[in-house]
From TrEMBL:
Record bears the keyword RNA-binding: no
DNA-binding region: 29-48
One of the Pfam families matching this protein, by short name: TetR_N
Domain HTH tetR-type, chain residue ranges per copy: 6-66
Keyword list, A-Z: DNA-binding
UniProt entry tagged with the keyword Transcription: no
Name of the protein in question: AcrR family transcriptional regulator
Length: 189
């Protein structure tokens, strides 16, 4: 009998991530991951207790990927950075975006709470948002995320005209951010 191949936890997560990226999260099974690795199922069970444990690890990888995309944006404008990262994620990983955002799942609640805190902290560094209370910043973020979510859903599902590109999306997001900030300032007076 030939020796069993050994795979690191990261290699197994990457194989499951590739399945999710092309087929969706619901397609991750221990057997499919084993096939992706060219292995039996045994090495997967050495690293993960069950498929749910593996899916949690893949979700964690997706969260890290989305956070990395946000950190790579350095426009100096919090809304623009958030929007650019979101549009990039929806364009590059439409299946993951749909699974992560458009389908109910137990993982999104934790992500939303962590990411909300991170986004508000990011927004507080934006000079355009000086003078707003934490409550106002949370509401601004909620309104912008609602708009941005709709736009990125349209991107992920290819519902926009062919001439639509990321630059046009950023332009629309910038315009919406300006509208939300102007309205919020007017209500403060």
């Amino acid at each position: 009998m030939p020796p069993k191949k050994k795979f690191s936890e990261e290699q197994i997560i990457e194989a499951a991530f590739e399945i999710a990226k092309t087929e969706g999260m619901e397609s991750i099974t221990i057997r499919k991951v084993a096939e992706q690795l060219g292995s039996s199922i045994a090495p997967i069970y050495v690293n993960f207790t069950d498929v749910e444990d593996l899916i949690k690890a893949v979700m964690k990888k997706i969260v890290q990927l989305s956070q990395q995309m946000l950190q790579e944006q350095n426009s100096g404008n919090a809304f623009k950075d958030i929007g650019m990262a979101s549009l990039q994620f929806a364009e590059e990983y439409p299946n993951l975006f749909r699974d992560f955002v458009m389908k109910p799942n137990e993982y999104l609640g934790d992500y939303d709470q962590d990411m909300g805190t991170e986004l508000v902290a990011h927004m507080k560094t934006d000079p355009d948002l000086e003078g707003f209370t934490d409550e106002e910043i949370h509401m601004i973020l909620f309104k912008m995320r609602a708009f941005q979510m709709g736009l990125t859903i349209m991107v992920a599902n290819q519902l926009l005209p062919k001439e639509f590109n990321r630059e046009k999306g950023i332009e629309i997001l910038d315009s919406m951010a300006e509208d939300v900030l102007t309205a919020t300032r007017l209500r403060k007076k």
